[in-house]
């Protein structure tokens, strides 16, 4: 019997909140009347975030010729929608890095970033219009793992060790051990953070995209493909062999044959290579 969402919440207790600066910024980026100055004012209250945004604006990814030194310049350069991704990325990073930053946390974070970049690249090459949403979907797909790591430090870390050493199926092992898995926990968190339903669905169904609600099938499929590609590129903990069925479902949803998939994957691998600096900067 799968656990109900109510039981899940009862098991997990309070979920970590989205930091206030992120909440304010999300509200602003959704407001058509918001100005760059409004954004600057909110971001500048957070030193670490300011530094991160400046670094990203200066990273090779945006091919800037002139150095970006002020927040206002950075906002103009990156645009609202990329700023939104950076802010969510920074909030997610804090969660991925809660407590001790051991090898496991580092690998989970690196996997999230590579999956985010891969999702965005898949979105571009597949002509999915909302590329920043794809980036965030990739970034947050495994956020449930961080929540489980925070809530059950010993048990979850032991589980990850088993997955790592025995190349086991993490999702199945989570279900056996806890009665729920990181996809369910991720959905609960993304819901609590009030992010778009498409992002909730991508977190929930990245291992089984075919079950996503109809409107959200393409995003769930893109994130599923990005997830597997990230593991194939050795970013993260887990064996891509366990993502075979997720990947077949995604190909079905996106009407891709093996050859078409391979040619899109070529483009995505190149994008990951190009964005390596951003991965290192975060
Ligand atoms: Fe996952
Ligand atoms: Fe993943």
Question: Would you summarize the structure shown here?
Answer:
This protein has 282 residues and is mainly alpha-helical. It has 17 helices and no strands. The chain folds into 2 domains: 18-92, no CATH class; 97-282, Hypothetical protein af1432 (Orthogonal Bundle), CATH 1.10.3210.10.
Structural overview:
The mean pLDDT is 90. This protein folds into 2 domains: 18-92, no CATH class; 97-282, Orthogonal Bundle (Hypothetical protein af1432). Helix 2 (20-30) runs antiparallel to helix 3 (36-43), helix 2 (20-30) packs antiparallel against helix 6 and helix 8 crosses helix 14 (217-232). It is built from 17 helices and no strands. It is mostly helical and 282 residues long. Bound molecules: fe (ii) ion (2 copies).
The distinct ligands, each listed once, are: fe (ii) ion
| CATH topology grouping of the largest domain | Hypothetical protein af1432
Count of individual beta strands:
0
CATH superfamily of the largest domain: Hypothetical protein af1432
Helix amount, in percent? Answer: over 70%
Number of domains: 2
Question: Could you give a short account of the major beta sheet?
Answer: none
Low-confidence stretches: none
CATH class of the largest domain: Mainly Alpha
Strand-residue fraction?
under 5%
Shape: globular
DSSP helix count? 17
Rg from Cα: 18 Å
CATH architecture of the largest domain: Orthogonal Bundle
Euclidean distance between termini CA atoms: 40 Å
User: What is the N-to-C order of secondary-structure elements (H for helix, E for strand)?
Assistant: HHHHHHHHHHHHHHHHH
Structural class of the helices, strands and pairings?
mainly alpha
For the residues shown, what is the average pLDDT?
90
């Amino acid at each position: 019997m799968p656990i109900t969402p109510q039981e899940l919440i009862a098991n997990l207790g309070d979920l970590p909140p989205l930091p206030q600066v992120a909440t304010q910024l999300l509200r602003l980026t959704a407001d058509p009347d918001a100005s760059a100055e409004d954004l600057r004012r909110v971001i500048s209250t957070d030193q670490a975030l300011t530094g991160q945004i400046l670094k990203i604006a200066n990273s090779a990814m945006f091919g800037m010729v002139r150095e970006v030194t002020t927040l206002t310049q950075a906002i103009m350069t990156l645009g609202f929608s990329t700023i939104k991704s950076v802010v969510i990325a920074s909030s997610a990073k804090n969660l991925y890095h809660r407590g001790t930053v051991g090898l496991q946390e580092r690998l989970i974070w690196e996997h999230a970033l590579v999956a985010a970049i891969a999702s965005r690249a898949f979105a571009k090459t597949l002509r999915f219009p909302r590329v920043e949403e794809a980036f965030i979907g990739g970034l947050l797909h495994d956020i449930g793992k961080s929540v489980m790591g925070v809530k059950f430090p010993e048990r979850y870390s032991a589980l990850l060790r088993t997955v790592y050493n025995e190349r086991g199926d993490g999702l199945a092992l989570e279900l056996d051990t806890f009665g729920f898995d990181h996809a369910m926990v991720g959905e609960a968190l993304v819901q609590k953070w009030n992010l778009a339903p498409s992002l909730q669905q991508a977190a929930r169904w990245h291992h089984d995209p075919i079950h996503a609600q109809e409107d959200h099938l393409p995003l769930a499929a893109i994130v599923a493909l990005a997830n597997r590609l990230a593991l194939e590129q050795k970013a993260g903990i887990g064996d891509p062999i366990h993502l075979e069925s997720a990947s077949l479902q995604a190909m079905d949803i996106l009407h891709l044959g093996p050859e078409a998939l391979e040619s899109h994957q070529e483009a995505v691998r190149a994008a990951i290579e190009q964005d390596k600096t951003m991965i290192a900067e975060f």
